[in-house]
Amino acid sequence: MGEAKPYIFFLASLGLAYFSRASLLRPRSHGFYRFFSWEAILALALVNADVWFHEPTSWHQLLSWPLLLASGLLVLHGMHLLGMRGQADPERDDPTLLDFEKTTALVRVGAYRYIRHPLYSSLLCLGWGVFFKAPSWPGALLASLASLCLFAAARIEEGENVRFFGEDYEEYKRGTKMFIPYLL
Fold this sequence. Notes:
Structural class: mainly alpha
Oligomer: single chain
Number of helices: 7
Strand content: under 5%
Order of helices and strands: HHHHHHH
Helix content: 55-70%
């Protein structure tokens, strides 16, 4: 697989760039930074791909699997709630938003009751879960880069949400954490 990694990275990056094309043209949008977090996680996954199941009972693998499980559960749960409660409007006028992000109602149930960004929390868990497959300095750099980009994306998205939802979002911010319930 080693020889194919650059090609896989290139092709997957093309797909991510296409998916994020509107955001990449607007560096002040949350999607701009989200793209770079996806890129860092993709690179990290390729760096650690050869050891994904190596030493399954090692301390780092035992940290990795719960993070990866949490990532999957959070993304499924968050997407489900956005679809059921977010009242998406494809006509919402913001080309940097993906269709599922074009919500017109704040979601305050499930994970959204405790954290404002379950989908970014999912990506944080994914990035660090992949990192713990085979901890290394390059991996730590990529996981940290992904985390910083997700933090920037969340901050920018919160500004966008305040502009769209107004005081309702400000109130929501005061009662929830950004990524981790009761902590951060």
